[in-house]
Amino acid sequence: RDLISKGLIDYVAMDIKNSPENYVKAIGLNYVDIKNINESIELLKTNQVPFEFRTTAVKGIHDIEDLASISRWIQGEQQYYIQNYENSGDTIASRVKISQELESFTKNELESFLEVLKVKVPNACIRYA
Questions:
Q1: Residues 77-128: pLDDT tens digits?
Q2: How far apart are CA 32 and CA 77, in angstroms?
Q3: Nearest residue to 116 (alpha-carbon basis) of 77, 58, 46, 64
Q4: CA-to-CA separations, 97 to 25, 82, 92, 94, 102, in angstroms, rounded
Q5: What is the pTM of this model?
Q6: CB atoms closer than 10 angstroms to residue 5
Q7: How far apart are CA 48 and CA 30, in angstroms?
Q8: In terms of Cα–Cα distance, which of 12, 25, 31 is closest to 65?
Q9: Measured distance CA(111)–CA(124) in Å, rounded
C-alpha cells in the first residue's frame, strides 16, 4: 500500500495460490491467515496501479471447484491468468510430503476451467508458456 501510494510500483502480478478454503493445500502449510491476502486483492482492485492476478494450476492441488471459488473471490474486470504447472524439478513436492504426484492439466481441462472463470472474471485467459 505504501509503495503504491508513493508511486514506486508500476505493475503488480499477484499469485492467487488456490481458493480461500484450500489455500494451505497449495502453499504446503497447515494454516494461513487469508486476511492479508484479501486486503491485497481489494487494494489492487482499486486500480491505483496496473495489475494481474494469476494461478498456476496443478493437478493434485487444484480442481474446477477451486477455480470457481477463486473466480468468486477476485471477481471483476481485471486480468486473471491461469498458467499450467510444469515440473521444473524444484517444486513444493520436493520439500513437502504430498500424497500424489503433481501433474499438468491438459489443454482441454484448462479450457474447461477458463469457461468457469469467465463467469465472474470476464478477462480471464490461459497463459501458455
A1: 999 999 999 987 665 555 555 556 789 999 999 999 999 999 999 999 999 8
A2: 27
A3: 64
A4: 11, 25, 9, 8, 11
A5: 0.88
A6: 10
A7: 33
A8: 25
A9: 11
